[in-house]
Amino acid sequence: MFVAAGIDIGGTFTDCVLLDSDGRVFAGKASTTRGDLLEGFFNAIHAAALAAGRTGADAIREVRDLAHGTTVATNIMVQNAGARVGLLTTRGHADAVTIQRSAGRIVGVPTTEILDLLAADKPHPLVDRTCIVEIDERVDVDGDVIARLDPTQVESAIAELVAQGVDAVAIAYLWSFRNARHENESRDVIARSHPGLFLSISHEVSPSWGEYERSMTAVINSYVGIETGDYLGRMRDELTERGYLGSVAIMESTGGVADPLSASRFPVRLILSGPAGALVASADLAAELELPNVITSDMGGTSFDVGLVIAGSIVRTDRTTVGRYEIQLPSVDVRSIGSGGGSIAWVDDISGGLRVGPRSAAAMPGPAAYGRGGTEPTVTDADLVLGYLDPDFFLGGALKLDRDAAAAAVKQLAPRLGVDVFAAAAGIRRVVDSQMADAIRLLTLAQGHDPRDFTIFAFGGAGPVHAADYARELGITRVVVPRANVASAWSAYGAASADAVVVEQHVEVISEPFDMRYAREVLADLRSRCEERLRDEGAVAGAISLTFTATMKYRLQIHALDIELELDTASDTLITLFEHHYEERYGQGSGYRAAGIEITGVACRAAGQRSQRPAATTAPVQGDLAVGERFAYWPSEGRQLPTRVFRGEHLHPGWRAEGPAVLDLPHTTVVIPPGDVGHVDRFQNVVLELA
Amino acid sequence: VTAVASSRTQDWQRVGYLPDEGPFAPMPIDRWTGDADVDPITFEVVRHRIFLVTEEQGLTIVKVSGSPVASFAHDFATTILTADAEVVYFGPYNQAQVGTIDHNVKWILEHRWDSPGIHDGDMFLANDPWIGGRHQPDVRLMCPIFWEGKLLCWVGSVIHTYDVGGNTPGSFCPDAEDIFDESLPTPPIALVERGVIRKDVEEMFVRRSRLPELVTLDLRALVASSTVARQRVHELAARYGGEVVAASMNKVVTAADRRVADRLETVPDGTWSHHGVIEISLPGDRSTYELQMTLRKEGRLLIFDHDGTHPQIGSLNTTVGNWRSSIIAVANRLLGFDLMHATGGIVRHLRFDSRPGTIVSAEFPCSVSNGQFGGAATMDMATICLSRMMATSSDPELASRAMAGCTSSFPVSVLSGTGRNGERYGILNLDAMGGAIGAFAGRDGADTGGQIWDPGSLMPNVEYAEQYFPVLYLYRRELVDSGGPGRFRGGNSAVLALTPHKVDRIELSLGASGWAFPTALGVFGGYPGCASGARLARGALPEGADGLLVQSMDDLATPVEDLQPKIRRTTIEHGDVYELWWSGAGGYGDPFRRDPGAVAEDVRRGAVSREAARRAYGVVLDETGNLDADATHALRGGGVDVSPPAGSLPWLVDAAGQASCRSCGGAVGTMRAGGCPDGLVGLREIAMQDLSPHNRDPAMFIDEPVELVVWGCPTCGTAHDAELVFGEGVAGS
What we know:
The complex is a heterodimer of chains A (about 700) and B (about 725). Chain A has about 700 residues and is an alpha+beta fold. Chain A has 18 helices and 33 strands. Classes of the chains: A alpha+beta (about 700), B alpha+beta (about 725).
């Protein structure tokens, strides 16, 4: 009997994980269907049910709890296909979203390209300048109303915008997070006169300090709102039509789920739902394995995403980049570089150096091995040439790879590198692995940590193929491919296991000595708002856990840190905690105490389990997993070696293999180089111990 | 690469340090030569790691310093250099610093090798503008990295610190008579000796500051960034050997050198020059001063000189090191746009022929703390000279990167006083980080695309400024008609207006340039972006809400005063409105040849006004904003409405040096030195106030009259050049 489902729609694949009442986990994969995402959604459910020898219809009938992460909002952004948005701003400040704090040209652009002024331009505006209307109103830094809003002005502004064809509106006034009165009055006017219009109110979408990012968050929320809402509505309808009786929850960037109604109001919170699912799953697993520090690494076809779990907590951020825009929302902190299986290798004609990326063959034409017309050598071609991938078992055999085409592509580089085709392929791997290691190093150092204190979790289609090498490059000795067969559906697994989470924030800059009685009042208010929301969404079974944080910084310096506190924490204690964390993160002596310390905001995060369910178990299946041997080239040996090949559909705890070996899982391959050892632990994780 | 006669080691104490370009090894220090062959794969792995060292240095600076100047305004720089003092990679931060560290390393090699010596674990501190510096607040740290007892490479970093003394808080001293009114310049001294910070040196250095604790933090940040870089290089050397690391660094430099050589092969030899002018040397002065830049291309060398530049004067001056660094910053982005900041190879093709005792090559002990004026003007002129040269390239890729000038001189507008809660504050308006980018040969520039010399810098939010300072922003918006008209339009800049809020007054000081006339220049007939400026309306705001919704200085009942660009101190009282705007970017090509549809779209979006569409572009729109084709045709002279064919140059030159107009084929004369044909005719003269509504009457600031003269084809009237002309002969003079 299936009890829970997690479904994650990514750019290429839609993944589903099903949990049954015995705690068993089944994963399935289907192609993402760009025309109608729901097609892939149901195909993936069916594929996962098939893994248990059952059907999608069974799953839909039985599951009581379905959680969903989706790329729908991101796709709308990438395709510039959002709503025609109208924006109301404070008089004199219409241009905040077009000026973009002058960062629009370089946000999201790799460092190597920012000097090329011709190549990097500002993005096409999401709101046409003629659809931004300034309203006569002003609130100041203290929340005092300086100029009163006239509702009739809002009424005529909105009528004009609607006449221009606007179908979604954002309202973003200065200091609205200090005094929301004018934004609320404007909302009420619009709701009365145009009840059908999609509305985003900046202090609701992003209660944060800084008008550009807050306005942009509201604008993007409206830009993706209508289509996301449509999609979620259709999903519910279709599920109901197919007989689904359980609850539905939507994965959000913050690492928790929300009910579909709330997700439809705040679709911008879905932007990082995929990576958030993966991080939630990773943090849970890290806790089970008693690993305090984990680097999560997801290598797919076009990108390499890195996240961190430090001292058991997911590293989060309030600032996220969406395309060339910056938004302000609590979310998991995931950084991406353009290294993936499709990254193209080339020789720089001047230095003679071998380079990989930033161009990618992506899914079309894809690597030469895909046989879709690609002729340039990619990372996947190199992996195939080296013998790590089985041309007949790629994606479980769903895509036949053409080894000759891959070899021909890689061979083009060989003479220019002065080596044979194997050494050229090994070179491509080495370059890309070293790039990924460098990206991880920079990210962990930015958090004030040494990568050697971490374990690497590797997932995504290409992660386990490369992890041993990028981990070694960082001086890391242990790699975990989580839950083996589930590794390639890791985000879906995370969605299925994520808590319901709500976050309420209050933004106000206060200086020391802190008035903790006031802070307590504010926090208590946030707490009741959180509890109310969780109750309204009705999705929580059991206790709610609360976390309070204060965002703190030294005056005259810029770094702000979120410090956890309790309702009864004293001002002195809070300051000590902040100074301690500041030094830990930024180095000894890095704080400038004389300038004073300030709190720039407080937040309450409430999380509760959605339903009680059995702990995940796995049915050990005995038997020899070896399916044969093939020749693979190992650069450490400088030659091809006979290499044992294992099939991992039926992995069981206690399995162990010494490198060189490869372990084919349904959707990825674990490469175990000579000298390293792979084994399966009691949680069904494939663990690599590096020499 | 062989040295040319124009580069020489000078008498650095007086005229400034100017060593030969290229690899430099004046004394016997045992070093890794990097002659080994590195295989292409190892090279890429090592190269990538070396590239990231500069980013890791930057990350460390932001972490440890935590200063908004370093973090928001990004006013710091990092770099890694070969043992022979050539830049391998320059970090993606303040690009104007690109030619400062290499000079310091060369100087240390030359002057410190015997006493106190150069050892493993040493780090040298400096802020002497006469040794590769922009001005005294830029504090630098240079660190030699040894491996197995031999010198392997250098790393260096710079931070603009809050205050290093001098007669004005912030250490920009607008009325300094000479260096003795300013912060003390310090040539490289060992702050760290064999791994240990010398407390005596640290205390001696920070003692000069009004905010010694913050300077200490900045010094710690510099030390930490060098420590991290040193550790990373040591890890590389331990793994691959010193020789491979040194050889990889050499290869990065050599590859960039070859790329630039190839690019220069596509450009015919020639001379391009620009005559500029800079205004007002001290508060109260009304004079203008000549600036000149000449670029000679000979084979693979680009030789810059500033012959004809005015002798040093007042507080306008800068040192030869800053002049050189400013030119390299421009060459880096125009010729090395894809080289990932591998500056050393680019610099090998540059030569600097200086004339000591002038505004851009000032001699000790004159005032240089406002070196940003001369630096900005140098970047403006270098952009024009290099772009005119690149437009002649037979490589379309290079020619397409020819561009007009970007937002010029950053206005130093400092607000200070007592805040709402009685605290003292002082802040530089960082709003002008929202600069504009100039037009290209085939594309418009970027509106508020950022300050070009610091691509990662950010404009603070209005809510940030209002939180920390007692001000209320009445508006901050993109500035209509600020971008220079052209076939491709220069980017628009922005404007702000603020008033004291919940306090009685704010103190204001200003140090700016480029107010009397525009300095962000157009090319090939494109017009300059608007000039910068500031205005003050005293007692303008009525009490109450209405006043706080004021949207234009022109709506105010009280008179509006145009402020001078250099003011030691004035006050903005409660009820006054202070408005500040900064220069737009220049246009490319004849604005009368701009696609009328693009002009109509600019008007629709509010980037260009209807008046400017008609006046500058000859485009007439009907009441609904649609193009009136007949009226436009008539206004454009009824001649060529068609756009000239794509291409970066407005003329074609035959083998005999005869030029013909690209639009109509008519003869435009013989190419002359300076880069223009001699048969262009004057098409029109435009007064500054008619160029842009944001330009003031130059007579408010300077005595000399100035106008824009537009030159073009005698046959079809297409504009090919537009230049500012000063003095006698200007209409109205």
